[in-house]
Specification:
Order of helices and strands: EHEHEHHEHEH
Number of helices: 6
Bound molecules: cobalamin
Radius of gyration: 16 Å
Oligomer: single chain
CATH superfamily: Cobalamin-binding domain
Mean pLDDT: 82
Structural class: alpha/beta
Length: 189
């Protein structure tokens, strides 16, 4: 399913270098529909999307971000265990050298009907830069992402690392199997 009015945005981004973002659904969560929509949406918005799909570990997100020199990781959680799955994510990013990576999270982040402001505060305390409810206006999220990338990395940014190692893989071989939507072989799916 192709969301409306997306394909005609492509020419706007033709001559711009695309910022890479990592997408995935964290933990043991297998809800895949929103993930696919996010992939299509952010690709149409001009980002280079590396979608890790469902059931992604923190380490896999981080490996993919290092491999692709990504500027942001967009985490989804739908099944109610987001708080547990996301615990320590920012610390692990820092430990692995991703000092500046933007961390976004969205979906049904906790069990039941907790007011969103409380959920937002919880995830911000964990180190997420932005927290989104399931009914977020994706256009606004994309706008915020562009703005945050510009603020954090500037116009001549080279990526999330600030130690001259941008784009260098970790010593341990990344296992994320990171693929961009542009590199994919559709027959393999
Ligand atoms: C379909 C479905 C399933 C299917 C999933 C099939 C599949 N291949 O995806 C199946 C049957 C497998 C399933 C299983 C379960 N489910 Co279910 N499922 C749903 C259901 C009905 C629809 C989900 C969906 O596709 N929505 C449509 C998409 C487009 O929306 P979305 O996923 O919310 O994603 C959007 C936004 O959240 C947002 N977004 C998401 N992430 C991010 C990140 C960022 C950065 C941004 C900006 C935005 C963003 O943008 C997305 C695109 O618009 C929901 C109820 C609902 N109405 O949402 C329950 C629901 C998500 N499931 C729920 C539960 C509890 C489960 C189970 C635990 C049930 C069980 N006891 O087994 C299991 C978990 C299994 C697992 N390991 O993950 C609960 C979660 C409750 C909670 N969080 O408190 C829900 C909300 C139902 C409910 N009301 O109780 N489920």
């Amino acid at each position: 399913m192709q969301p409306k009015n997306l394909s005609n945005r492509e020419p706007e981004f033709k001559n711009m270098e695309k910022d890479t973002i990592i997408l995935g659904v964290i933990g043991a969560d297998c809800h895949s529909v929103g993930n696919k929509i996010l992939e299509l949406f952010f690709t149409a918005e001009g980002f280079k999307v590396v979608n890790l799909g469902v059931m992604v570990s923190q380490q896999e997100f981080i490996n993919a971000a290092i491999e692709t020199n990504a500027k942001a990781i967009l985490v989804s959680s739908l099944y109610g265990h987001g708080e547990i799955d996301c615990q320590g994510f920012r610390d692990l990013c820092l430990e692995k050298g991703l000092d500046r990576i933007l961390l976004y999270v969205g979906g049904n982040l906790v069990v039941g009907k907790t007011p969103f402001e409380i959920v937002e505060e919880k995830f911000k305390k964990m180190g997420f830069d932005r927290v989104f409810p399931p009914d977020v206006d994706l256009k606004k999220a994309a706008e915020l992402l562009r703005q945050d990338i510009k603020e954090r990395f500037g116009s001549n940014s080279t990526g999330p690392r600030n130690d001259g190692q941008a784009g260098q893989p970790e010593k341990s071989t990344p296992e994320a199997g990171a693929r961009s939507t542009e590199d994919r072989d559709p027959k393999a799916e």
